[in-house]
Amino acid sequence: MTAYGLLVVSFMIMTEGALSFLGLGVPAPTPSWGGMVAEGREVLEEAPHVSMIPAAVMFLTILAFNLVGDNLRHLAKKRTSQL
Fold first, then answer.
1. Which parts of 1-83 fold into alpha helices (H)?
2. For residue 44, what is the enclosing H or E element?
3. How far is CA 66 from CA 15, 40, 43, 83, in A?
4. CA distance 41 to 50
5. How many angstroms from the chain centroid is the CA of residue 42?
6. Cβ–Cβ contacts within 10 Å for residue 21, how many?
7. How far is Cα 8 from Cα 3, in angstroms, rounded to an integer?
8. Distance, CA of 79 to CA of 77 (rounded, Å)
9. 18-33 pLDDT, tens per residue?
């Protein structure tokens, strides 16, 4: 159950980032990764790090939640097979 919860958290982070990138997320003064990536689009050729750093951090966060969830699922499966 915990592994599924972590998968849902990852999906929600990705959804919020996509909606904020499209301008449908949280209002402008509130920071969000999707909003930061969208703001960096204007200066992408001069300063690509403005968009790439928030995108990379969002990617690594989602990856971390997925890896932790996968490890928890693996441990739970291993534990139930020993019983």
1. 2-21, 33-40, 49-82
2. none
3. 15, 27, 31, 26
4. 8
5. 22
6. 20
7. 9
8. 5
9. 999 999 998 888 999 9
